[in-house]
Amino acid sequence: MRHARLGGNQRLLARSGMGLANGLLPGPTPVLEGIERCERILVDVAADRLVCGVVMCIVAQLRAMNREFDLAWQLCRDGRAMLQSLGDGVAAAQTSVDLARVALLSGDLAGAERAVRADHAFLRGAGEAYILSTVAGVLARMVRAQGRDDEALQLTHDAEAAAAADDVDAQVQWRAVRAPIVARQGDVATAEALAREAVRLASDTDAPLLLAEAQADLAEVLAIAGRSDDAAIAYAQAADIWGRKGDRVSAAAARQHAAALPPAH
Question: Looking at residue 265, what is its pLDDT?
């Protein structure tokens, strides 16, 4: 980006900025630093509406992690509207992941689910598989969070079917979302195996957000199995990872789940 800026290559500057923002979000860069760097990227790429729209939605997730929910929703709406105005259906649909994450962090799921479902249907109809697997996974998480396990389970199968073998994010997501559902259905052994495989896959990345979420889903499986001590440890590990990232919302939620566990027998 520095060389592109010096050389006046705006296209390279914009595309590099989008790539950097996409790494700042899930990677180890703390939330507040990520926000600051993404805001600088938005200044650099102001002339490129496609990149601006994508980066605004990324910043929306980071703002939501910092409990700035009103600003997060505004950024997400504006970024998606910018992409939709360009007529790039796939790019706009991809930001449904950002929309879903803001909704999961803020707890405002019902309205956001309709938009994510529309994007999921568009991607399926367009024959797009790479983004579809991630959108299906995060939609499954939204549906599960609203207590509709059977529907969420089917969406995890959709995500699994669409996921490339080397798409680690999608491979982690369908396992992690499915695991607590399977545990509630009574098959704790399968659920724990799914959750631990999700944690193992996420551990091989430098994406702490992915790892923390998988760790929290493992904790939920252990809690359902009645293993409160093990669940408390897993929740604490997830909270620690989220805390280092600066995701205040998720870290607090993990600590609350741990505190609510019944005493071990």
Answer: 61
